[in-house]
């Protein structure tokens, strides 16, 4: 721009010089007037040059300003492209997961039909055996009448042999009936397990389909969480496992939802068993995506809420029943948003009942996660409608959200509000998130958590935790 202006000025100066060197006819007649016009032309050139210089300066400032605005626009376009790409990847992952769930549902439905046909066949066999048993019992009754009539006489060896043979047949039939009835009960349990898995998968498929249409944030969650799957089998048997470690001892190695019946409860309940840990653990809480609102009432935290296939809280009543016999271990696993691996800590656990507001006692922490629960041992459980913390001025559960064993207000809250990006401020939004605070200088926002219990006599899980030691927690 500056070189163009310089060229224009040189042209104007040359034109003015040539005009001064070649006088016109009027100039030869009147020389004084020619001299005045020549100086006037030079002044006009200077004014024109100053104007052109100012115009060039303005143009240069306009070009710089326009260039800065274009850079800002390009940056915003790049940010939009990255966000759109991330949403595309998320939508593709959801579609792939939905296809896998549909395939699994079809397989489970086929297995369900096969098990139903097998159950019908077994029922028909049982009915035939029962009819044969009734016939044998009638024959035995007739023989007993004959024996009573011959009680004063002698019984022949043939009759004794016939009686013995009938007794052996009846005994073997009774054994067969007992085994078939046991098989029928097992088939019924498998049918129930298959039905629960199919229902949970259908719910998950429906949830994924809705997630593709609209993306929900934690603030848009409904205040009423789903109810945990109940135990619906009417045959309350006494041979159900007392917890997941008992089920592990019976040879089950697949993680999933099972029926449990602790010795101090009259009715069984469903729970999620994590069999990836040696010895098996019963999962009390799991957070992974923020789909369940954990800011619930005391009644909800006592009974449990959520979805076994996603996020859930098993319930204080069930947790107390699982650990009431003592010598229990509380295991806490967390993962931060840096995705450097999970870490865990385990405590010796004693949990009081409803009369003590589920007061918790923890000691001897072990693991690769720094301890953040020491200040909360000996505390009662609190919710937004049941304030049992040590804070004199306000309710920790109302301020921090979620139910927990708050002190005043404590260094950990794994039932807080789920956020994917940590707020920059230090106000209520930051205090209400899921966090683990092992020291006053460090507080970590968590991506996923899992709380589980097991008997202390079960196999130690430290060596099988599979956690990395490079996490930033």
Structure description:
Helix content is 49%, strand content 15%. The chain is of the alpha+beta class and 473 residues long. The chain has helices spanning 2-21, 25-29, 31-149, 157-213, 244-249, 298-303, 316-323, 396-400, 428-431; strands at 256-260, 269-274, 281-287, 305-306, 312-313, 328-336, 343-351, 360-367, 412-413, 435-439, 442-455. It contains 9 helices and 11 strands. α1 packs antiparallel against α3 (31-149) and α3 packs antiparallel against α4 (157-213). Strands 1, 2, 3, 4, 5, 6, 7, 8, 9, 10 and 11 form an 11-stranded antiparallel sheet that branches. It starts with a helix and ends in an 18-residue tail after the last strand. Residues 21-29, 209-222 and 460-473 have low confidence and may be disordered. It is elongated and about 160 Å long.
Write a concise keyword list for the protein shown above.
473 residues, alpha+beta, 9 helices, 11 strands, elongated, disordered C terminus
Task: Describe this structure in a few short sentences.
This protein has 473 residues and is α+β, with helices and mostly antiparallel strands.
Rounded mean pLDDT is: 78
Low-confidence stretches: 21-29, 209-222, 460-473
Main pleated sheet? 11 strands, antiparallel
H/E series = HHHHHEEEHEEHEEEHEHEE
SS element count, helices:
9
Write down the overall geometry. Answer: elongated
Instruction: Compute the separation of the termini in Å.
Output: 58 Å
Helix content: 40-55%
Q: How large a portion of the residues is in β-strands, by DSSP E?
A: 5-15%
**Structural class based on helices, strands and sheet pairing:** alpha+beta
**How many beta-strand runs?**
11
Radius of gyration: 42 Å
Oligomeric grouping of the chains:
single chain
């Amino acid at each position: 721009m500056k070189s163009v202006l310089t060229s224009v000025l040189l042209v104007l100066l040359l034109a003015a010089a040539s005009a001064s060197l070649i006088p016109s006819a009027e100039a030869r007649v009147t020389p004084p007037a020619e001299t005045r016009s020549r100086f006037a032309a030079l002044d006009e050139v200077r004014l024109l040059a100053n104007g052109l210089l100012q115009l060039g300066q303005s143009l240069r400032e306009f070009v710089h300003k326009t260039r800065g605005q274009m850079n800002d626009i390009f940056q915003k376009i790049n940010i939009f492209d990255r966000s759109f790409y991330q949403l595309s990847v998320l939508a593709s992952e959801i579609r792939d997961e939905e296809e896998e769930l549909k395939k699994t549902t079809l397989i489970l439905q086929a297995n369900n039909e096969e098990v139903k046909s097998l159950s019908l066949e077994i029922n028909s066999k049982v009915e035939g055996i029962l009819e044969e048993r009734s016939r044998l019992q009638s024959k035995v009754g007739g023989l007993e009448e004959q024996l009573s009539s011959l009680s004063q006489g002698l019984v022949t060896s043939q009759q004794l042999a016939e009686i013995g043979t009938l007794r052996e047949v009846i005994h073997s039939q009774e054994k067969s009936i007992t085994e078939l009835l046991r098989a029928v009960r097992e088939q019924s349990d498998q049918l129930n397990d298959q039905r629960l898995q199919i229902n949970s998968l259908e719910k998950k498929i429906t949830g994924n389909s809705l997630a593709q249409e609209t993306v929900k944030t934690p603030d848009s969650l409904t205040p009423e969480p789903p109810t945990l799957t109940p135990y619906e089998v009417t045959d309350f048997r006494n041979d159900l496992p007392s917890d997941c470690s008992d089920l592990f001892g019976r040879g089950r190695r697949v993680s999933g939802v099972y029926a449990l019946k602790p010795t101090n409860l009259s009715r069984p309940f469903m729970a999620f068993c994590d069999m990836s840990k040696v010895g098996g653990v019963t999962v009390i809480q799991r957070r992974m995506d923020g789909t369940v609102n954990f800011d619930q009432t005391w009644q909800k935290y006592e009974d449990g809420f959520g979805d076994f296939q996603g996020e859930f809280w098993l319930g204080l009543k069930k947790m107390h029943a699982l650990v009431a016999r003592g010598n229990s271990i509380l295991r806490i696993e967390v993962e931060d948003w840096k995705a450097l691996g999970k870490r865990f800590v385990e405590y010796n656990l004693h949990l009081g009942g409803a009369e003590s507001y589920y007061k918790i006692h923890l000691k001897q922490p072990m693991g690769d996660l720094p301890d953040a629960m020491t200040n909360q041992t000996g505390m009662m459980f609190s919710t937004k409608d049941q304030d049992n913390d040590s804070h004199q001025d306000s309710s920790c559960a109302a301020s921090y959200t979620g139910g927990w064993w708050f002190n005043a207000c404590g260094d950990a809250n794994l039932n807080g509000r789920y956020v994917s990006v940590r707020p920059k401020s230090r106000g209520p939004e930051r205090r209400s998130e899921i966090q683990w605070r092992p020291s006053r200088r460090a507080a970590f926002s968590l991506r996923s958590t899992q709380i589980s219990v097991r008997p202390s006599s079960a196999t130690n899980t430290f060596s099988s935790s599979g956690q990395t030691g490079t996490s930033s927690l």
